[in-house]
Amino acid sequence: MTSTTHTSAVFTLETMDVPGGTETILRGGRHLLPLLPQAFAGVRRIGVIGWGPQGRAQARNLRDSLAGTDIRVSVGLRPGSASAADARAHGFTEEDGTLGDWLAVTADSDLVILLIADAALAAHHEEIFAALRPGATIGLSHGFLLGHLRATGGEFPPGQGVIAVCPKGMGDSVRRLYEQGAEINGAGINSSYAVHADPDGKATDRALGWSVALGSPYTFRTTLESEYRSDIVGERAILLGAVHGIVESLYTRYRLSGDDPVTAYERSCENVTGPIARTISHAGLRAVREELDPAGREVFDRAYSATYGPAREIVAEIYDEVADGTELRSVVLAERRLGAREMSGIGGSPMWAAGAEVRARRAERALPVEPFTAGVFVATMTAQVDEFAERGHPWSEIVNESVIEAVDSLLPYMHARDVAYMVDNCSRTARLGTRRWGPRFQAAYEQIAYPASELPPNEALLAAFDTHPLHEALAAAAKLRPSVDISVV
């Protein structure tokens, strides 16, 4: 039996049953906002450094949640930042002291939340550390910096608290669901939190307060190391990279079988981001198979059986390269090589031209789940789950990084904009990983999985899926899901 517990002097925590033990989590909601001054005791100014997707969302959510308190939220940007105009447009200004130079804001803040790009943080963290006021807490939303420090022999400055709150969704989702939460209590994006250094004994409550202020309906504990491993692997696998490889390979398969471009797009990309994602979000992974007719189930079973092995091999390879620092170094090296240059887009392949027509005809009919596509997607998702479980990640982290973040944050945006748009507009770390690993999934499926799908299904593999502890863990997490889907605008 395993138990992951923590305590809070401010918030009332809950125990959640998970396979093999329990986890202690915090259920969020707007009713907790009055507790924020107590959670942030000793913090008079929060500095959000950076105005990328997470910085833009988190600064606004924190400001709105702390309105009426004595705690001020300020945004710090590098000199000449192109983001300054947008920050001003959203109410952060030099005149009222809520917008300023990143090092000046760092020096004046009690909680410094570092949300600049991973590679930029790797290059400039020493300047930021040098500017910290004594006793200030460093806040992160990703463990990348820890991995970089370990790889280069660096460390966080002694005497400074180090915490993390890591939303399990893109920045636009963090803000959009927070806005919906004004009408539906608890709406938001789940977050993990970590306490890496706690010199004054207040780090846990600061981290939980930060998560509540972002609107997280469900906050679970992790470590910085566990977070960056699962997050970076997930980006390259089921959250982005594998999705790209899946839909490209399936589109080609359906076109070769005689489908016109629109039908092939509907059976591949549209199916993953639409009916398959919705089914998993509301009914769980097993429901995708159970709701098929017998003929569809047989197709699903063959696709699942053929895909799981190749998918698991690639996810394991990604994990190894993240764990040994190879993937992190590749991000830093790419940033040095590319500099300010724009990366080329991936939306030029033939399939993306059909997307606009598919989205335009959605109102005409409800698209059914395509069994073969479902088998491929669910097998890939399950392969990531199994790799994370074998590597010792807690179940909350497994289901959030492998399932919930996909179906409740990223796939709805892909459905509204398409997968190519998401890949070309995500963080550079995620974009680099997707461009590296997406083609690996595509090639493995085209060359290994799809030919093998002509064979009879693997009954032992399917039995393992049917009785998988994932279903229990996902059902427990689903009890904390707000009764709202993200509204993509």
TrEMBL record:
Alphabetized UniProt keyword annotations: Amino-acid biosynthesis, Branched-chain amino acid biosynthesis, Magnesium, Metal-binding, Oxidoreductase
The KARI C-terminal knotted domain, residue ranges: 223-365
Statement: the UniProt record of this protein carries the keyword Lyase: no
InterPro entries hit by this protein: 6-PGluconate_DH-like_C_sf, 6PGD_dom2, KARI, KARI_C, KARI_N, NAD(P)-bd_dom_sf
Residue ranges constituting the KARI N-terminal Rossmann domain according to the UniProt record: 26-226
Pathway membership: Amino-acid biosynthesis; L-isoleucine biosynthesis; L-isoleucine from 2-oxobutanoate: step 2/4; Amino-acid biosynthesis; L-valine biosynthesis; L-valine from pyruvate: step 2/4
Domain of life: Bacteria
PROSITE patterns recorded: KARI_C (PS51851), KARI_N (PS51850)
Pfam families: KARI_C, KARI_N
Gene3D superfamilies: N-(1-d-carboxylethyl)-l-norvaline Dehydrogenase, domain 2 (1.10.1040.10), NAD(P)-binding Rossmann-like Domain (3.40.50.720)
Residues annotated as binding Mg(2+) 1: 231, 235
Binding site for Mg(2+) 2: 231
PANTHER family: KETOL-ACID REDUCTOISOMERASE, MITOCHONDRIAL
Stated family: Belongs to the ketol-acid reductoisomerase family.
Protein name: Acetohydroxy-acid isomeroreductase
Taxonomic path: Bacteria, Bacillati, Actinomycetota, Actinomycetes, Kitasatosporales
